[in-house]
Structures are given as C-alpha cells and as structure tokens.
Amino acid sequence: MLPVTEPAGRRVRTAALELFAERGFHGTGIRDLAQRAGVSTATLYHYMGTKEDLLAEIMRDSMRLLLRAASPTGTGGTPTERIARLTRIHVLAHAARPLHTRVADDELRALSPGSRAEITALRDEYERFWQSAIDDGVSTGEFRVQAPGVARLALLEMCSGVARWYRPDGPLTAGELAARYVEMALGLLTVDGIRLEPDPGAVGDMDRLVAELWPPS
Amino acid sequence: MLPVTEPAGRRVRTAALELFAERGFHGTGIRDLAQRAGVSTATLYHYMGTKEDLLAEIMRDSMRLLLRAASPTGTGGTPTERIARLTRIHVLAHAARPLHTRVADDELRALSPGSRAEITALRDEYERFWQSAIDDGVSTGEFRVQAPGVARLALLEMCSGVARWYRPDGPLTAGELAARYVEMALGLLTVDGIRLEPDPGAVGDMDRLVAELWPPS
C-alpha cells in the first residue's frame, strides 16, 4: 500500500503505474488498484474514470514529455548532433522513469481505437524528429545507412530497451549509459555497408536452417 | 475460431499463442482460449494443464529453437562473422515467427518463479553466444565498443524489435531486412568512440532538461 500522506488521486496514479508495469494492463484488477492505492473502489472510480483512462493518461504524459524534450534537442545543428542529443534524451528518460516508459512502450495494444489513435499520433510526431535527423544525415553523407526507416525503428527499440534492464545502482550512471548509447547509435548509422561481404553459400545455409526451425506457419 | 480439421491439442496451442500475443497472458481468459480453439473448457484443461503451462511451453520452444540455431552459427569464424550470423538468425527468426518471439520476449514476468528460472537459464545460455562473440571481437580489436555488456543488450533489443513491426508484405524481404540489421549491428560494434566530442555545456543543458521533465521519483 502506498503512503496515505499523499493525495488519493496521486496514489491512484502511482498504483496504476506500478501495477501496469508489473502485471500489464490486463493483469491489473480494480481491486488490486484500490488495495495498492489504499482507497475504496468507490474512491478509485472517482479518481480514475475507467482503468483505460488511467492507462491513456500515463501514455499521454510519457509521450508529451518526450516531445517537449525532443523539440529543442531534435532540431538545429548537424544530423550527427541531433541524433546524439535525441539518443541522450531518450536513454536518460527511459533510465529515469522506467515504469512510465515501459508501460507507454508495451501497452499500446490495450487501448481502445480512439485513445490508440491519439497516442499513436503523439508517437509519430516524436519519431519524426528521429526520422528527419536520420534522413538529413543520409543527404549530407554523415550517415550511410541503407534503410533509414528501419534504422529509426532499430535505434528506438535499442534505446527504449534501457527501461527493461537498467538499474541506477549498477556499474554505470545514467549519463555514462547515455554516452555509450550515443556512440552505438552513431556507429549504427555510419556503417559503410561493405564491412562484410557474406559468402552467399553461408547465407543460404543459414536461411535453410531458419526455414527448417521456423517453418512458415 | 480455428479450423477443426487440426487436432485439438494443436488448436489449443495456436489459440494460446495468438491470444497471448494480442492481449497478453493476463488479458487472456480460459473462456477466450476455449472459444478460439473451438473446444470445451474441459477439453482445454485436458490439453493445457494450466494456462501458465501453455505460456511456459511457448517460451521454452522459442528459446530452444534460438539455441539450436545459435550453436552452429555462434561458434567458429571471426567475431565479425559470428555476430553477422547471430544477427541474421535472430532477425529471420523474429520476422518468421513474430508471435512466438514477442510472447517469449514480453511475458517473462507472467511466469511463476520456477518456470521463470528455467526460461531465464535458456535465455542466458543463448545470450552467452552473443556476449562471447562481442568480447572476443573486443579482444581482437575488431570491435571497439566501450561497454560490451550494454552492447549485447542493445543489439538484442534492436533485433527483437523486428517482431513488433515487420510485415512480410512490406518493402523488404526478411533476407533483406536481416542484411540491413547485420550492417547496423557491425556498425554499432565498430564505433570508434571519438566520433563525437560532445560540448560539456550542451550535455549539462540536456541533463538539466531531463531532470526537470523526469524528476527522480
């Protein structure tokens, strides 16, 4: 149970965040929420509207904060500088608030179509900062990635993953972690594309192995 | 409802896979499972044991297949070749069986401690192929990544993300997609670490912005 010194509305939101992150949206019952927040179910309904409203609020806040951080950092400067700044911000945000960002990243499927469209629009707006920095870098020749849209998705998945495993009491501070991600992100984007000339025979062997182990269903 | 021409046990497993991927383990009820599989709940219990048994089976199969693919491909050759092969296999597997791999990646928290320990051990065994290839590459100087453990996590998150968005009817075949990921993975690992000398003032500004937007809770 959360400390009762906090206002009930805040306790409800914190309880929702913790439980959605631990058990998922669908795994969290109304009783669990009321119990964790230390309120009656009647009070709970007063503060939360529906359970989905709570989820949508967590996601909306999470995306809006990322957007507020991205708008000054994702514009201006060279594409390399913009990607470095976006990566630093994204990693620091995911290290600082892993529950918020994990819920926002994982539970989109749990939203009804209306809320999903709203959150998806915010996410698309945020991702455009990344995509335009990547595309501009390809234009200037700073980046040599062959599929810029795939690179955006790869970078975002890689950086968001921090929310799943980073612990502030581990060997790296969040700032050091962010610095390592900036290096990796820039390395990923500046691949020369001819670093490896794979033996076509070996590729064929691998693809046959994959087709055998994971047959098309 | 799944076609009744398939044996009931197989229908139950397919229904579980689809529903766990769509709604999450906790979001899937026994009735949903029986309905999708086209069996009675009594038949369902006969085939599935508990709902968690079904989940553990999906995860166990998924990890064992990755391990079977990694053992011939993750050993032998240079570290660059090993990472290229592991990346190709991982991406192809996630593109070919997105539901299996997504459930395996996302639902670990839903398992009871005993099953979780078993699946975690398989996952650790699989990740050791990646880590040893990265560490060997750092030793030989092929890779210049500063935090090899972080690089492993970043690579795996990036490659597993394919299961969330890749569609075979999109612009890239799975083989082309895998080729792009191999390039990005090798770029990420061969970053020279001095590509960007960030302005300490700018880093300070960003960190202050992050601390303001995402205050320590």
TrEMBL record, chains A, B:
This is DNA-binding transcriptional regulator, AcrR family. Residues 29-48 bind DNA. InterPro entries: Homeodomain-like_sf (IPR009057), HTH-type_TetR-like_transc_reg (IPR050109), HTH_TetR (IPR001647), KstR2_TetR_C (IPR041490), Tet_transcr_reg_TetR-rel_C_sf (IPR036271). The lineage of its organism: Bacteria, Bacillati, Actinomycetota, Actinomycetes, Micromonosporales. Residues 6-66 form the HTH tetR-type domain. GO terms for molecular function: DNA-binding transcription factor activity; transcription cis-regulatory region binding. The keyword DNA-binding applies. It comes from the Bacteria. Keywords: DNA-binding.
